Amino acid sequence: xxxxxxxxxxxxxxxxxxxxxxxxxxxxxxxxxxxxxxxxxxxxxxxxxxxxxxxxxxxxxxxxxxxxxxxxxxxxxxxxxxxxxxxxxxxxxxxxxxxxxxxxxxxxxxxxxxxxxxxxxxxxxxxxxxxxxxxxxxxxxxxxxxxxxxxxxxxxxxxxxxxxxxxxxxxxxxxxxxxxxxxxxxxxxxxxxxxxxxxxxxxxxxxxxxxxxxxxxxxxxxxxxxxxxxxxxxxxxxxxxxxxxxxxxxxxxx
Length: 254
Known about the structure:
single chain; about 250 residues; alpha+beta; seven-stranded mixed β-sheet
């Protein structure tokens, strides 16, 4: 049965940084907003987070600069990764599986292509409940190893990160995860079914992408996303493209 839901595409409103209250309202309403009017740079990415999320911020993770040349498509995903490193003998978390907001600032637009697209994962799963109950039951009821496909990556804990694709935080916020790293649990008695459902989920999400509205980030634009609610991706591009990325936890995160 088709799992293609109607109206999952999100067109983030463009709002100047001087109107932080309005940007905050649209983020809550739509799950995504584009903040304009700030210079490029990691400092202003942190400023943008403070403007939109304010005192709700609980923890910021290290900024990441992504430079791609003639890059391929980045498919729909939610940010989140389980990385702990040792710094001077002290464990330090560099990424968190339940980062609930992500900010992406365009430092250099591509020569051609590289448009961003955003999908409302809440609408997707709500539609699945009726259109594909078997997939919905899997997403809400089956534990997987979120990053098992990347076992052996340095910094990734050896202990499997077990979770369901759809869960809730302690404050009642729904999380809808989307990662290419998910695999069945070790010795999962239903491994074949789990692999089949992971593939079904993958195909359903990929089918969304062509029809989603595109938005081109200009230099300095910051895409702010509710990472529990929205998935995001970008089209292939030619030439160099540079973005700065900041992920964080707010008081609503798990």
